[in-house]
Amino acid sequence: MPDTPADRTTGSRRAPSPARRLGSEQQKGGHPPSLLGRLMVAWAHQCLTRPWTIVTVAVLAAVVSGLWTAGSLGYKVSRVDLLDPDSEYNKLWIEYIREFGEDDDAVVVVEGTTRAATVAALEDVSRQLAQQSDLFHSILHEVDLTQIRAKGLHYVSPADLAAINRFLNRTEPVLAGGWPQLKVGTMVGGLAAAMVSGPPAGGSQQDEPALKTLERYSESLLASLEAVDRGRLGELQPGDYVSPWPGMPGSLSTLRDLSSQYLLAKEGTLGFVLLRLTKEEGGFAGASKATDTLRQQIALVSDRHADAEIGLTGLPVMEDDEMRSSKQSMIWASGLSLVAVAVVIVAGFGGIRHALMANGVLMIGMAWAFAWATGSVGHLNILSVTFAVTMIGVGIDYGTYYIGRYLAMRRNGLDCEEAILETSGSVGPSILTGAVTTSIAFFSAALTSFVGVAELGLIAGGGILLCCAAELMVLPAVLAIVDRSRFCQSIPEPVPVHRWLEPFARHPRFVALAAVAGTLAVSSGIHDLRYDHNLLNLQPDGLESVEIEKKLLEECDQSVWYALSIADSREELLARKEELAALPTVERVDEIASLLSGDEAVKTPLIKQIGSRLNGLPERPPQIPLDRLDALGETLGWAQAEAAKRPGGMRTAWHLERARDALRRMGPEACYQALGTRRRPVTHCRPMRPRWR
C-alpha cells in the first residue's frame, strides 16, 4: 500500500506490513524467509485469530499435567537407583539384596554415662518400638547367642567329633542300658584292667590311655569323698565338681557359656538398636511416616533416661532426610529463581506487564515438563530433582528473547499484530534452534550408563523443548490478548544497559587482555581442586542423622557406610579378607566365613552317627547301684598297686590311696552317702542332644 500524500507532507513514517516488507526484500534480491520462519508466521496468525482458544487449551493442558504429576510422579531416594543395573558391581549388589533383602537398617544410637545406663536405655527403646509393629520390624539390640547351642556339634572340629564318637564306642554298653557298669568299683576295676592289659588290638592312636582316664576318675572320686568327710556336701557348687569323663572340646565348651550380647561400643557407653522401617509405596513419602514416628518414640524414651542421649541415624533415615531436604530446597530454589528472573526481566524491559507474561507462560511450560518427567521416567532422583531450576533458568531465556524483540518492534512503530508476526518470523527459528541444540546436549547425557545422570538428561532435554514450545506457541497469543486491549497500549523503555557497556566496546584490546589475565589468575587454583568422595558432605548442615554418623566415624569403628565383596568360595573369601585388610584405606574387614562351620561333608555323617546313639538316652537316667564297701576297698587297693608300677602312675596311686583313707575314716552310712554322690553328676549333666536337621 503506497504512502498517502498526507504521510509525505507531514513527514510521518508508517512501517510497511510484514507481507509488503517480505515482497520488497524479494524484489531487492534479499533472501526469502525459511520454511521454519514461514511456519512460525503461520502459527502467529492463528494466535492473533484465536488467542483465547489457544491460551485456554494451554492452561487446561497445564492443569491436567499438574494433577497427573501430583498423583503419579514418584521419588527414589536410594543411591542404588542411580547406578547402571547392567554394571558388574551393581549386578553383584542386586544378587546380594535378592539373597539378604534390600532394606537397610535404621540405627538408634544410645550414649550413656555408664554401661548400665546404656543397656537400660537400649532395652527401653526396643520395648517402646516393639509396640509399633506396623511401622518397625526386625528390631535388634542384643544378640541371643544361646540359639546356636543346639548346633554346637557343627562348630566342633572333625577330629573332636571323631574322638566323641570313639568315646561313645567305649561306652556303648552303658548307652544300651547297662547303667550298673558305672558303679565305682566296676569303673575303677575296668580302667585298671585296661591299664594292665595295654591298648586293645586295632585301637586308634588317638584314644586316651587307660592310665590317664583312671587318673581323672580317681581325682573325681577323691573330691566327692573328701567333701562328705569334711561335712561340705551341701556346700558343693557346680564349679567344685571334677568330671570323670574326657574333657569337652574347647569349641563346644565355649558354646556352653554363650549368653545374650548387647550391641555396644566404647567400653559399653555407646549402644545401638537396629531396626527396619516400613516404606510407603510411590510418591515422595518413602519411609517418612515411620521416621517421624520413630523420632517421637525416641523422644518419649529420652524423657525417661536423663543419663543417656539417644539419636537416630542409618541409611534409610539419611535418605529420608535427604529426600525432604531436596524437596524443600527444590521448592525454595524454584520459587526464588522465578522471583529473581522476574526482577531481572522487569529491570531489563522497564515494565512489569511483559515480565509477568513471560513468566506466566513459562509456568505453563513447566507443568508440561513435569508431565513429560512423569510419562518418560515416572520418578525423580536426588540428581534429576534439580531439573525444575534448570527449566526456569534456561526456559525463561526463550521468552525473554521473544519479548525483547517484540518490544523493539513496537518501539520502531509497529502495532501489536505486526510486531508479533515480525518477531515470530525473525527470531522464532533462532529460539527453536537454540532450544533444540540445548536439548540435544541433555539427551546425550541420557545415553550414559550412570542412571542418575541419564534420567536427568532425558527429563531436562524434553522439558527444555516443552518450555520453548510454550514460549513460541502460547506467548504470542497472550501478547495478543493483553497488548491489544485498550488498557495496555504503553510500551515500556528498557534499562539502558548498552550505554553502560559502551566504554568496553571502545577498548576491545584492553577488554580481551583483561579477560585473558583474569582467566589465568583463576586457573592458578586448579591444583587445589580435589574430588570429595564423602557423601556425608553433600548433606545439609545440622541434620541429626548426619551429625551422629560423623560422630560414629570419629569416635569408634562403627558406621552405616560399608563396602561389600562377594566371593564364590570360603577359601577365596578368606584370601580376599587378607588382601582388603592390608589396604591402608581399609580400617576393618568383617566376614561371615569364620562364623560358619566348615567341612560339613565330613562333619554331617559323624554328627548323625552321634545323634543316633544318643537318641535312646532317657530323660532321667536310673540310679546307679552302690558297691559293697569291702569289695570296693579291695578293688581300689589293687588299682593303686598296679598304677604305682606304671611310669607316670604315681599321681593316680596317690589319689586312690587318699580315697581309701577317706573311706576308712567314715562310717558305713557316710561311705554310702559319699558313693551316692557319684550318681548325681549323671543326672545333673544331662547330655545335649545334637540336631542336624
Keywords:
693 residues; mainly alpha; 27 helices; disordered C terminus
What does this 3D model show about the protein?
With 693 residues, the protein is mainly α. Helices cover 60% and strands 6% of the residues. Among the domains are: 33-78 and 351-493, Up-down Bundle (Multidrug efflux transporter AcrB transmembrane fold); 157-199 and 206-242 and 606-611 and 620-684, no CATH class. Strands 2, 3, 6, 7 and 8 form a 5-stranded antiparallel β-sheet that branches. Strands 1-9 form a two-stranded parallel sheet. The chain has a two-stranded antiparallel ribbon with strand order 4-5. The protein is rod-shaped. Mean pLDDT is 78; it is low at 1-31, 236-240 and 680-693.
Topology:
Layout: H1 5-10, H2 18-27, H3 35-49, H4 51-72, E1 74-75, H5 88-100, E2 106-112, H6 115-130, E3 136-140, E4 142-144, H7 158-170, H8 172-175, H9 184-197, H10 210-229, H11 250-256, E5 260-262, E6 264-265, E7 270-277, H12 288-304, E8 308-314, H13 315-349, H14 353-376, E9 379-380, H15 387-411, H16 416-445, H17 451-473, H18 475-483, H19 497-506, H20 508-523, H21 544-555, H22 570-581, H23 600-614, H24 629-645, H25 650-665, H26 668-676, H27 680-684
Helix pairs in contact: 3-16, 3-18, 4-14, 4-18, 6-12, 7-23, 9-10, 9-24, 10-25, 10-26, 13-14, 13-15, 14-15, 14-17, 15-16, 15-17, 16-17, 16-18, 24-25
Question: End-to-end span in angstroms?
Answer: 103 Å
What proportion of the residues is helical, as a percent range? 55-70%
CATH superfamily of one domain: Multidrug efflux transporter AcrB transmembrane domain
What about the largest sheet?
5 strands, antiparallel
Strand content: 5-15%
Second rung of CATH, namely the architecture of one domain = Up-down Bundle
CATH topology heading of one domain: Multidrug efflux transporter AcrB transmembrane fold
Q: What is the CATH C level class of one domain, in words?
A: Mainly Alpha
β-strand number: 9
Radius of gyration: 45 Å
